[in-house]
Structures
1.
Amino acid sequence: MRKRFASSGGELAYVEEGDGPAVVLLHGFPTSSFLWRAFVPPLAARFRVIAPDLLGYGDSDQPADADLSMTAQTGYVRELLESLGVQRFAAIGHDLGGVVAQLLALEGSVEALVLLDAAAFDAWPIEGVRMIQATEPAQETPELVEQLMRLTFDLGMGHADRLTNQAVDAYLAPFEQEAGARGFFRAVRAIDGAGLVGRDEELARLDIPVMLLWGEDDPFIPTEVAERLNELIPTSTLALLPGCSHFVTEDAPETIVPLVYEYLRARYLHEPHGHQHEQPLIQLQRPT
């Protein structure tokens, strides 16, 4: 069910389904909670699933004067969770949503963490984002936004044929028209790389289960970032997905959804196996 919440920065749209221990799904740039459409129904069978559109994205407000940085977004998500009475939860973050998930984990409220091709350390904003940030105001048109987003998906998909035209249209919809295009560039210019720099020691002290799922062919946030996280966080496990790129939720949902569900069942709920499952093809790595 899609709902709305008035945060200190503006109204957030969010999906809430299911009952049980909370799981918070956090998207990145330039997507929305639509990214999690394959995750919500199966997870909601066992968990209380909360998937917000970050401020400036999706169906959430696109305020002209609000702080849209990831540190501010973390605060808005925290406000939402407090309003829902959620104090402890599992966090799943993709791309910049992974930054929000890490920041929430460093605050101590996260009991299990799953990062999918997530920004980390000082490895963001990437060069392509910096180039978009340099766009002149006169060029901030819906046509340019569409070109940039289509290029992002073209480069960030290992299996481009799996992203339907309807899905692309859903991702484009919040940034259509002149107001939406201006909102797109406000969001991209808020990607400042702040929040995680210099916090390696804190990450290394995390005492929660951490799963890292990465597309082997990610051109935006390469596997070197995942390997660095895996080496730093003693409780982490890294799974590399062959043939997948940055948008792993679009490339291989049939693999990732059951993998995440089983990880949360075992490491977040601490429940034993009820029956055997066919194992997905992955490469599990731990530092040597």
2.
Amino acid sequence: MALRAALQDAGLVVIAEADNGRDAVDLALHFRPDVVLMDFVIPGVDGITATRSIAERAPEVAILLLTSSADEDLGLLGLKAGAIGHLVKGVSMEELIDAVRSVAAGEPVLMPAVARRVIDRLRALPDGGLGVRPVRSDLTTREWEVLDLLCADMSVDQIADHLVLSRETVRTHVKRILRKLGVHSQREAVEIANGMRATFSPGSLGTAP
């Protein structure tokens, strides 16, 4: 395969290839590679579902989603599912290899239109610290996303729709959040999160002498 050969010629080790979404998930969970190149259109389990499954069960694996069009909605859908990057098929091999190296280093790779949509969504967030998180936390990125939305007074059903997750998956995240925070209710979790944000908000930071 040309892609595999190009990656190997660039000094990147290709651990495995999958013919369908289910195999992609199984192989990613087994080998735990630095990067997974995920096709949006893939037989069996679709690329978004496969991305979500890998991100939830192996969050250390960086996923670069490849789509056949520059539709920013697809890119946003991939980011919500857990991808760290999004490229359109047809980019040069050099761009693709650079993107793989970037996501392996923890750097996001976004098409300009997707980056603009992300910025627009951030600007639309309400004031009051929503999204501010401690540098060190036992919560995963996905758990913080769920907690952010609980703080925004969203229900489990609304969170599931917003993050494109199943209701059961969101309930599982909520249970883990409560356990990690040592509380027994969503209200208590929200209070703790708001307390953390008050501690780490820009207005509470002092200047060095």
3.
Amino acid sequence: MDAGRPTAISTTGLTKQFHGFTAVNAVDLAVAEGDVHALVGPNGAGKTTLFNLLTGFLKPSGGQIRLGDTDVTGAPPERIARLGVARSFQITSLFDQLTLQQHLEMALLAGSSLRYRFWVSDRALSRFSDRAAELLDEVGLGRHRDVEAGTLAYGQKRALELALALALDPKVLLLDEPTAGMGLEDVDRTVELIGRVRSGRTVVLVEHNMSVVAGLADRVTVLQFGQVLVEGTYDEVRGDSRVIDAYLGGESAA
């Protein structure tokens, strides 16, 4: 990373152990503001564990996590979210009977002062309808706003999940396998979508599809055995002999 650029999210010596097994081992990571930064590596390399540490879903065994200048080491997910971080999950969890519009209105409500109320009227919820419609348009789902989420195709569900993350108006957007399980057409559409919504945001993504990484990432961190193996641009890391060996050498993390 260019030392002169502000850092959106960073780690120093970040470590996570599970019953004696070190899943993330002293990782130093610095993601520049405005970048798309990809975390890649063989299966079991520690990508998802690192992702869960960054978002507060796991507490580190050691090291430090910072959002900008704020130390968030060990902070719960809700605090990290309030500081401007939103994430999507590898496995989509939606309410099948709710429409897309209702999903977005509820997400916008959750980010407002009204979230503390036990009961909110339809009239109060309607104040979010215009913004909900804008977000659905942004991810290409505007014409499906009144459709129940359970009827969507898989790629459309992932687009809805991205809209829900954007409803929090995050400074940092973390995407866990955003193209997992998609056909080529949906992959291309998702890459184009992420390319649009990255404007004004920092994006960190875990991704196995290296063509997606090539099309989106400004920087790539390759993990192996819970440690940083290589970091650089896509072109720099793809030709590195250590990366080639990690993927093709027949040895991967458990």
4.
Amino acid sequence: MTRVLIVDDDALLRRSLAFNLEKAGYTASTAASAEDALAQADLNPPDLVLLDIGLPGIDGLDALRRLRQQMPQVPVIFVTARRRELDQVVGLELGADDYVTKPFDVDVLLSRIKAVLRRSVPPPQPREPAPLEVGDVAIDPAAHTVAVDGHLVDLAPREFDLLYALAREAGHVVSMDDLLARVWGAEYAGEPQVVYVHIRWLREKLEDDPARPRRIVTVRGVGYKLVPLSGGGS
């Protein structure tokens, strides 16, 4: 049975989440602090972690860094009430797989958990997707590498998926809805902010001047397209 570790300093919320997760068929364990969670995970690794940001002692952001060192493959969903940190969390640069904001509907959370667990065990593929070249941008899905003008660029997993989705339609506009469906899944319909943030992160890594992008171009009211440029062309 899938085991979910709930890490939150709110005792009532921990009990409520554990009850609802058990009711939905999961095995739930709880921790009131990051220190307790890390100790539990070391003894009995969970299949997924629900991690609050605003924890006493070690906060959720630092806890995620430690969890990633301890169990790099276990999916983590951030739980946050801090709107000012949402941009950083949505960027998921620390390696979190998803986020939910308080207060949240339990059914929405269960849907996100199912989606993250589904993504964490990708279906077998008969062959690796083909490498793509769009101008001076070279993308190799098998090696999970991206190079711009021959220089490797370090991308987070979701950034890579977004770039590959654009590269498959190079020179053509890909709508916001299509990007959400291809990269994040149907659960994210109507949440364009995740695309905005990831596009910004990509531009900061791929463009010489992110404020005046020439590779990843916005088509207002429609979506985005990846434009081929020659070496040194941005």
